[in-house]
Amino acid sequence: MTAYRYLQLDVFAPRPGTGNPLGVVFDADGLSSDRMQALAAWLNLSETVFFVRPTAAGADYHVRIFTPGSELPFAGHPSVGAAWAAVTSGLAVPRDGALVQQCAAGLLPVRVSGPAAAPTIQLASPAARHLDTAPGAVPEALLAQAAEGHVAQLWDNGPRWWLLPLRDAASVRSLAPDMAAVRDWTNATGATGVAVFAPEQAAAHALVVRAFCPGDAVNVPEDPVTGSANALIGAWLRQRSALPGTDAGYVASQGREVGRDGEVQVQVDAQGTVWIGGQVQQVIDGQIHW
Predict the structure, then answer these.
(1) For residues 163 and 233, is the Cβ–Cβ distance under 8 A?
(2) Can you tell me the distance from the alpha carbon of 171 to that of 234, in angstroms, rounded to the nearest whole number?
(3) What are the tens digits of pLDDT across the range 153-195?
(4) Confidence (pTM)
(5) What is the extent of the structural domain holding 95?
(6) What is the distance between the alpha carbons of residues 90 and 116, in angstroms, rounded to a whole number?
(7) 9 to each of 22, 23, 216, 249, 279, how far by Cα in Å?
(8) 90 with 190, same domain?
(9) Is residue 281 located within the same domain as residue 233?
């Protein structure tokens, strides 16, 4: 049985225990897709990443991203965590503060700043697309709290998330959706899940977000902190000229309702690319036998 170096990171976490856990497996070329999927299911984290050899010209490192139920082309917290792990392990060395990640969604630019032992990561999300898909049977608890004049929209940046603004931050934080209804709705529409959000003026953040993904794609009732959904929300806000602040950058709060306190840094550049980042904490460094 082969031993693989294994890290468990806390991503979008100001301190350990406040973000979204991520499993990281190094030198995983010897694992088949089925064995990667089985390990991700056994670890039962929302995502696990596997470092394999790059196959695309220009890539500094290559990751495959698995939920307990499927492989994803892109996900935000695994990508931010993978970039952090690649730098701190010496697997990839930034050139003028830049790296390129290879994943199933393609080649993604990464910005790296700060010390190599504790870098700050910003990663470019794949381009966001609004899909012209009818919402169908939106669960009643979501409809009841929706912001006036808004309906659920399906957006794609690798994963597909239904986005729905709610009336206010209190509506987001108190929402108690019927998970079975959310599961059936997202499965029927081919979505990863649904993300709800609203402005919340606080010293440390400008937006509050929650993401529910109990369907087949992820099989996690509520994701603690979600990079891909936050990137899509940034694109949704830009489309409406509604980005908080004056520099097209803001912080989103997510996870308090499940005992976390994650912070996602969102920046939209002049070309419309959404960059996501945040702090990463290393919690476990060891070996995994699989």
Answers:
(1) yes
(2) 20
(3) 999 999 999 999 999 999 999 999 999 999 999 999 999 999 9
(4) 0.95
(5) 3-125+277-289
(6) 9
(7) 5, 7, 24, 25, 10
(8) no
(9) no
